[in-house]
Give the backbone structure.
Amino acid sequence: MANVTDLMIMREQALAAVQGAPDVAELEAVRVRWLGRSGLLTAALRSVAALPIEERRAFGAAANQVKADLELALDQGSARVRGAATLAQFASEQADLSLPPRRLRLGRLHPISRTIREVSRILATMGFETVEGPEVESDYYNFEALNIPRGHPARDKFNTLWVSDPLGDDPERPVLLRTHTSPMQIRVMESRRPPIRVCVPGRCYRFEATDATHESVFFQYEGLAIDEQLSMADLKGVLYSFARQLFGGERKVKFRPDYFPFTEPSAEIAFDCFVCNGGGRTNSGACRTCGGSGWIEAAGCGMVHPAALRRVGYDPERHQGFAFGGGIERLAMLLTGTPDIRLFQTNDLRFLETA
Ligand code: PHE
């Protein structure tokens, strides 16, 4: 027969079980074991009736107190395990903000833009101001004013793309996509007075089949200087400095006679190759940059033709000058080691990120 001491022992055991229960299920098992219909404490309470009358009061009071203590402990235990469960859930659901972000892809300038800026920068060191002109040009500026009249055989090499004039086609004033940047020689001379030093980078167009070194849309740069007493020596000096700043080292400059209707005399400029230093050979055989010749042909040039000077109202006895012009892609291919001109227009990031 249970007595109050037994109740105290039961109390200690039950409270310890509540303390040790790790979760809701275990607490429920403790509750059923002690306070359930056939629980240990329930049985003890029921046994009150069997006690001698003088013990009933003390035992009953103690048993009710143990029951109340146990119920309170169960409530607190329930709060404890639920709180722990919530914290565990939070911990498991926590966003890991320490994840490194996706790598940012930094943009960079297109190799053609870089080359244009480099050409402009270098010419600026010699006083050339960069200006731009229209890509849709008149026959007059692209050809006529440059001594290439209708029927002149030099027209043939330009493979011109003619366009229709939105203001109505006038057979006397045909419109085209400029085939070179040279029309800006005339426009600049018309709108300014000497001394003139300008650099004109810009897009040009020719009706041409595309291959590894030709595109129908491409860029040129033009240099023009007009002053008193300018000569081929000044032209050569400018090109020396240009080549050395662009390619580095002690570049040589070579003039080879050429023909352009708007310059006289005219020449083709070649620089000694900056890869093989003009020797034509590298350790692995013939130099691939210059094709083994030791020279890189870079541009056309010459002294501005007196007829062009007169056309814009200049006196060739007083003012002369020189002009030069070449392909931006050609320079960009040399500087970046790009083997095919078409890569510049395909917008392939694998090329653009490394070129
Ligand atoms: N405009 C010429 C071309 O496209 C190049 C050139 C420019 C030649 C300036 C002489 C002077 O072929």
Residues 180, 182, 222, 260, 263, 300-302, 323-325 surround phenylalanine (CB under 6 Å). The chain has two domains: 4-92, 111-352. Residues 4-92 form one domain.
